[in-house]
Amino acid sequence: MVDRAEQRRVRAEEADALLYLLLSKACDALGVPTEGVALVAVGGYGREELSPYSDLDVMLVHVEGYPRVDELAAQIWYPLWDSRTKLDHSVRTLAEAREAAAADDRVALGLLDARHVAGDSHLTLQLRSVLMADWRRTARSRLPGLAQACRDRASTVGELAHLAEPDLKEAYGGLRDAVVLRALVASWLVDVPHPVLERARRDLLEVRDVLHEVAGRATDRLVADLAGEVAAGLGLSGRDELLRHVYATGRTLAHVCDVSWRRVESLMTKPPRSRRRQRSGGPLLLALDEGVGQHEGEVVLMPDARPERDPVLGLRAAAVAADRQLVLSPAVCARLAASAADLPVPWPGEARRLLCALLGAGSGLLEVWEALDQAGYISRILPEWDSVRFRPPQSAIHRFTVDRHLLETCVEASAMVRDVRRPDLLLVSALLHDLGKALDGDHSVTGAAIAARLARRIGFNDADSDTIALLVRQHLMLAQVATRRDLDDPMTVDMVAGIVRSTETLDLLEALTYADARAAGPAASSPWRMRLVGELCRRVRGELSGGGESMWTEAPPVPVPVLHQVVGVGRLGLTVSDHHGDLRINVAVPDQVGTLSTVAAVLAVERLAVRSAVITSVEGLGISQWTVAGSAPDPVRLRDRLAVALRDSSDVVRRLAARDSSTARVASRVDLLPEASETATVLQVRAHDRPGLLYDVTAAIAATGADIRSAHVSTLGAECVDVFYLTDEHGAPLEAEDARTTAKSVLDRLTF
């Protein structure tokens, strides 16, 4: 097995030997003494953490009045540059080094790791002593600025545990933060768990070593193209296992940072000892709940608390901490993980209530859950959680690992607990809805089975457990139906109503859908998607309560009085308006097969991304209403371009083909959905999104003679799902053979 720590130490020793030789030769050549001058390794080189292509951070320290110091430095640096060694160098006196450290926190942190390489060792020792004393003396005033710098860096770069291509050094929870934690320890103000810190730092260094070897250059970003080779170099099975390892390490470091900075903040707000009231006895404890108290901003166990006798104590402490936005003491977390009594099966009512209180605490949930998870307590009470810990997201629209996404969904759901009758079912479903992602197959199906078992173990009765399982099984259904089905088709509403069966369940599923989408990220929770989900739920709610809002209507999507404003000269008209953050474009053209594809081509050339389209015919006009994203076009210019394209579409098709030619074709899928509608043939297209995709599909449909009654476009990341409701010339569903021919025509168009 490769000892990469030893390899890093050997690289540092080789660099030391070279610098020792260069300093000796330079002093001999210039006739200057080695006393009063020293070469000092700083930063990663000072810590002997050189990866294969790391820079050498070196400082030439000298006493005041040392002769010919600039010439000496040149004779050391130039041979290194000639050998193409990457060098970060400086020349300073002791006073100048102190000034540089005082002015720049990053310089100060690098100098805390100063290590003697060559020359006057007493000078290096003096440098280290002075800099360490300065750091400890000024730490109280400097740490707030350092904390802000860490927050700014985290905001700019992101968190190591949630980046698809993580920066091992600069991301929050990366190697830079490991250096910061060492500086906090050096300040003597706070302590950190040294074994945890050193293990995490070593793991990240080993990943970076292999990354350098694979990339053949210095880099800290673990890009997707290199991840497979890096995983192989570390003996891991592939990119997912590598990312899970990196995410776990980053989360550990980030958690240690969070706890440490909270303790620093608490320390900064304490009055000086001379102003504190003298008190006798032990530390002041504020009782918060049975067996749970507060001490210096942390939730702790009371002296008489016995977690080995009270199986609910851990959940009680967690719920109290999350509700009050307090930190759960790391010592308490470790004690709970090691000695807490097992919860009986099924859980008692108090345990279930406390779990729901914890999940409903809003943002306070995140840090408390992370502390318990790092200690191992979550794995004890919910063993299924281990299967999704640090699991990378499989979709580009997700911004978090699977486990963090589940917690973020709980945070979002907590804002809607007053909108549902059973908030406990909503919160537990939010926690469990993606547990199936650890298994092969449809994660909604596998997750529903896991959720049903877990719900019963947590203590829900059979009816509530079945509801939780239903919510998990259908947590994607509302968004998929709303964006891929015709909401005006009665079968759409009937299908959803048949699944949820009650307004109470619909309320829960709607809230879970919103929470899941918002936790996933902006792409999944766009105003357009959320608006469609809301409209679908409104219609289903009307159906379940006896209303008739889901009935199909032949009324045109554009109100009849407005048609006269839309239709212009030559029975061709167009309007553009804002619509809930997107654009609404109404188009009226002479009704004939193929006009929809022409409109789609013009919109694509104008770089307008189609969200949805609804089409109908009125008095010989084809009326289409488009919801698009992009910059608002000039309506007059867009109408003129459309008029030209309707007469001769060759130019717009040529321009669209030119844009599309550089895009590689990815395998597409075309399906007929016979159960989706009784009044139309429903065609579903799954494809990689690209310019002109909608034009290609609609042109292929038009070539078969089928009419498009409505189109529903849903794009998530780079993947697109388009659903078309097709009829024949008489407005009836296509014959089976015609439907198959149309589907094949579309697939051929997308493939060749």
Automatic annotation (TrEMBL):
Free-text activity regulation comment from the record: Uridylyltransferase (UTase) activity is inhibited by glutamine, while glutamine activates uridylyl-removing (UR) activity.
Comment field on protein domains: Has four distinct domains: an N-terminal nucleotidyltransferase (NT) domain responsible for UTase activity, a central HD domain that encodes UR activity, and two C-terminal ACT domains that seem to have a role in glutamine sensing.
Designated name of the protein: Bifunctional uridylyltransferase/uridylyl-removing enzyme
GO biological process: regulation of nitrogen utilization
Gene3D superfamilies cross-referenced by the UniProt entry: 3.30.70.260, cca-adding enzyme, domain 2
Cross-referenced HAMAP family: PII_uridylyl_transf
Region (Uridylyltransferase) residue spans: 1-287
Domain (ACT) ranges: 682-752
Coiled-coil regions, chain positions: none
Cofactor(s) recorded in Swiss-Prot or TrEMBL: Mg(2+)
InterPro entries membership: ACT-like_dom_sf, ACT_dom, HD_domain, NT_sf, PII_UdlTrfase/GS_AdlTrfase, UTase/UR
Residue ranges of domain HD in the record: 402-509
Family under the similarity heading: Belongs to the GlnD family.
